[in-house]
Recover the amino acids of this structure.
């Protein structure tokens, strides 16, 4: 979006808990979107894989049945809602691209119901309780913002949030905002409160640092509530805490850790120009000296 078109933007984040009932999950989300639209919100961010439970706690081939193509039933429904409510929606689905090829994909809907673009999650974790490499093929669309009527959206997904390179490339490609649909929390067996606090703080700090380094607002939407594994022996306590940070990393608004919540804020997009004038990180980057970043490790 060109600077002369930039303006204040009313954004909303829907932090929810989810069950195995996909219809119920979608109905909850739609009700929240309608409420936000009634308050003149123009952009709504949903959490990662918001229509289904977080199934990646185990490796089970039956879970591939949860995936759907784009377009598909969920995208069709959200398209209708975007048109009805006249809002831009950033959603997240388990995409069935082809037999044996599945992605964790963010789908952006324009106010007229069209799919404005998609982003396929690039960084795929493989940790206890987060066995995503079993399910998701790494994205192949690069770090390109989705162009919409409310701005150029640098959409990234969950594990992507820990990588400054992803945020930087979105910024260099002209993103007006960085948005992170997320599903992150603690193992229910982890009782070390100090370690839990360190993890939670690091999660917030790294994303606010992307705001500072790039002079962009950051929107983060996490799940909330406890979801158990299929055998009932393990589970994840999703820590909520969805938030919006301004162009200098300042925390503008934050949801609670322990319950569903809708947060909204009016972002000053013009502030990006002001901040980048006084903190000209993009100007002072030594692009002639960064060749090492293309290596896995410098021995």
């Amino acid at each position: 979006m060109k600077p002369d078109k930039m303006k204040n933007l009313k954004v909303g984040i829907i932090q929810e808990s989810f069950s195995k009932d996909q219809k119920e999950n979608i109905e909850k989300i739609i009700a929240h979107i309608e409420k936000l639209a009634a308050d003149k919100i123009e952009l709504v961010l949903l959490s990662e894989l918001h229509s289904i439970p977080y199934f990646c706690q185990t490796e089970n081939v039956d879970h591939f049945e949860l995936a759907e193509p784009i377009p598909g039933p969920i995208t069709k429904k959200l398209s209708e809602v975007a048109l009805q409510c006249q809002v831009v929606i950033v959603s997240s689905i388990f995409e069935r691209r082809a037999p044996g090829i599945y992605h964790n994909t963010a789908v952006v809907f324009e106010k007229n119901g069209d799919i404005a673009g998609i982003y396929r999650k690039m960084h795929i974790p493989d940790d206890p309780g987060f066995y995503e490499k079993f399910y998701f093929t790494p994205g192949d669309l690069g770090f390109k913002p989705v162009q919409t009527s409310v701005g150029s959206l640098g959409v990234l997904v969950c594990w992507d949030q820990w990588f400054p390179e992803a945020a930087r490339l979105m910024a260099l490609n002209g993103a007006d905002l960085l948005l992170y649909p997320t599903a992150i929390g603690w193992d229910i067996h982890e009782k070390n409160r100090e370690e839990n606090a360190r993890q939670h703080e690091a999660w917030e700090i790294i994303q606010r640092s992307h705001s500072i380094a790039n002079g962009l607002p950051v929107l983060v939407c996490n799940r909330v509530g406890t979801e158990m594994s299929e055998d009932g022996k393990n589970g994840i306590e999703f820590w909520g805490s969805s938030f919006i940070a301004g162009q200098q990393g300042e925390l503008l608004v934050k949801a609670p850790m322990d319950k569903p919540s809708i947060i909204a804020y009016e972002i000053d997009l013009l502030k990006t120009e002001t901040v980048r004038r006084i903190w000209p990180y993009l100007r002072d980057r030594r692009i002639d000296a960064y060749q090492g970043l293309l290596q896995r490790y410098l021995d």
Summary: The chain has one domain: 3-293.
